[in-house]
Amino acid sequence: MNEWPTNRLGSLPIVRAGMDESADAFIRLALERRGTGGRPFYSTSANGQVIALCEHDANFRSITRQADQIHADGMSVVLFSRLSSTEPLPERVATTDLVHAVAERAAKTGVSFYFLGASEEVNAGAVENITKAYPGLRFAGRCNGYFDREEEDAVVEAINAAAPDILWIGFGVPLEQQFVVRNIDRLHNVGLIKTAGGLFDFLAGSKIRAPQWMQKLGLEWLFRMFLEPRRLAIRYLTSNPVAIYAMLRSMGKRS
Predict the structure, then answer these.
(1) 3 state SS of 2
(2) pLDDT > 70: what percent of the chain?
(3) How confident is the model at residue 234 (pLDDT cuts 50, 70, 90)?
(4) 127 Cβ partners below 8 Å, 6+ apart?
(5) Contact 240/76 with Cβ under 8 angstroms?
(6) How many CB atoms lie within 10 A of CB 205?
(7) How many CB atoms lie within 10 A of CB 192?
(8) Burial level of 191, CB count in 10 A (0-12/13-18/19+)?
């Protein structure tokens, strides 16, 4: 992560880079690694839930810190950096927004995508919708996330055979991070890996984003909780206090 400076929030070094800068870098890094047969560049994201999980689970913390880059995919992380640092994070780099910024550039540069994760219906719908939105965007392949560990080798082989420039993995936390760490050294025909959480559901239209005004005010979490109160209320009530404590404790520490 030495290309950009970072801010330590909780136990994680969060990259101090904005949306356009990040999207430009994805294209450049993917093209630099095309055909080299080396280790892919690995980018993941952190929100309050991820920071809290890192506090509770040393193994998950170790796995997350193996990423080459960690984006702030939570407005609470950005807001806290503004309160705790003279050089705060410039903005939230949500994966649901980043994919569009990268797709727009990829369609112009010939950078290929691969979507791995979600159900067959959602995965197919996500690919269909984003290729309609960005004519010229090339997909090297796609695969749903419903496979057993015994089938993982075959999935890795299929991805290598497809040789995508950017592999988006949407298994959710922590499964997607675990998959990457297990397989990153074998994914030698991939340029860049980005963990994507529930991205494919939003692209397919099975889940909707908050209105723009709520996103700008950092209230997308409230909108999501309104839509899924039983699942998300418990998560926010249990993870947010832990995340806030972790970020307070990290003030003044280096990454």
Answers:
(1) coil
(2) 85
(3) low
(4) 115, 139, 142
(5) yes
(6) 11
(7) 27
(8) buried
Indicate the domain borders of the chain.
Answer: 6-249
Q: What is the pLDDT of residues 102-137, one digit of tens each?
A: 999 999 999 999 999 999 999 999 999 999 999 999
pTM beyond 0.90, yes or no: no
The helix (H) or strand (E) run that includes residue 140 is strand 138-143
One-letter amino acid of 124: A
pLDDT (tens digit per residue) in 8-64? 999 999 999 999 999 999 999 999 999 999 999 999 999 988 998 998 899 999 999
CB 72 within 8 A of CB 95: no
Cα–Cα distance measured from residue 79 to residue 218, given in angstroms and rounded to the nearest whole number: 9
Side chain identity at 43, as an amino acid letter? S
3-state SS, residue 170: strand
Are 10 and 55 within 8 A, CB to CB?
Answer: yes
Which amino acid is residue 112, in one-letter code?
S
Q: Residue 230 is which amino acid?
A: R
Look up residue 204 and give its DSSP letter.
H
DSSP 20-62: HHHHHHHHHHHHHHTTS-SPPEEEEEE-HHHHHHHHH-HHHHH
Catalogue the long-range contacts made by 248-255 (C-beta closer than 8 Å, 24 or more residues apart).
249/10, 250/8, 250/9, 250/10, 250/11, 251/84, 253/8, 254/8, 255/6, 255/7, 255/8, 255/12, 255/13
Asked whether 246 and 8 are in contact (CB, 8 A), the reply is: no
Of the pLDDT bands very low, low, confident and very high (cuts 50, 70, 90), residue 215 is confident
